[in-house]
Amino acid sequence: MIRTRFAPSPNGPLHLGHAYAAMVAHDLARAQGGEFRLRIEDIDGERSRPEFTEEFFRDLEWLGLGWDGEAGFQSRRLYGYVEAGERLKAMGLLYPCRCTRAEIAAAATRMGPDGPVYPGTCRHKAVDPQGAAWRLDVTRALDLTGPLEWRDERAGPQPAAPAIFGDVVLLRKDLPASYHLAATLDDAADGITLVTRGMDLFPASHVHRLLQALLGLPVPVWHHHPLLVEPDGRKLAKRRGSPSLGDRRRAGEDGTAIVEALRQGRFPAGISLGTGVDLSA
């Protein structure tokens, strides 16, 4: 049975881009008689605010995008993240790092999906682990797993290329886990068979496929959908003040009509589906 999920972070209100993402996950599950789950990714320290979570519930109900079962919360799964981190440490695949972003930017020799690629400064150094971040030795991890592949419904089979990120942080010094580790573990725990998310996260799936192999987790299929973008080509974003769903709901708009318009490809003036995302690693 197909099972999808929508996994917002409660660090700001939902906007039309979130409605589109939730609709895609919901509709793909319903079209095949499957389940649509809701997960709240609420481990982002002080930025995670419970009042936004309550708004998310109201927004999704208003949109007519009902979910199956109880909503899951990352904050209730912290032990699992710690346990996975300890397993990777025991395998000799994680190392502590105390480099700052400025130091990484100054030492980097190439750019990756998230900016300057960490050059491995602390990989073979004696670093005090107290208060440090823990990075995955990607080269060593790939030596252990061998070549890997994953499949996106829209883009087809993909050879896993996690090295495009360099040695990613899995255990952050300020948070229980990075997005890469938490999302991978959560999708496995929730039995997600089709991971739906925006094209901006396409590169992250290379890392997630590696983590699945290292931790013996099931491998889902992915579906990376286009993003709603503004006239300048940038995706809708909370930080740039994209109109919130909550404001539209309180103003008396019809949420189900908004979703139906999205299904039909009818967007507000100046908003469109982005088409310029590079699918290659």
Characterization of this structure:
- The chain contains nine helices and 14 strands.
- The protein starts with a strand and ends in an 8-residue tail after the last strand.
- With 281 residues, it is an alpha/beta fold.
- The chain has helices spanning 16-31, 50-63, 78-90, 101-107, 138-145, 179-189, 204-215, 245-250, 255-263, and strands at residues 3-6, 35-40, 72-73, 94-97, 111-112, 115-116, 133-136, 149-152, 156-159, 169-171, 194-198, 221-225, 228-229, 272-273.
- It is globular, with a radius of gyration of 19 Å.
- The model is unreliable at 277-281 (pLDDT under 50).
- Helix 6 packs across helix 7.
- The strands form six sheets. A three-stranded parallel sheet has the order 1-2-3. A three-stranded antiparallel sheet has the order 4-7-10. A two-stranded antiparallel sheet has the order 5-6.
- Helices cover 34% and strands 17% of the residues.
- It has two domains: 3-76 and 180-273, HUPs (Rossmann fold, 3-Layer(aba) Sandwich), CATH 3.40.50.620; 79-171, HUPs (Rossmann fold).
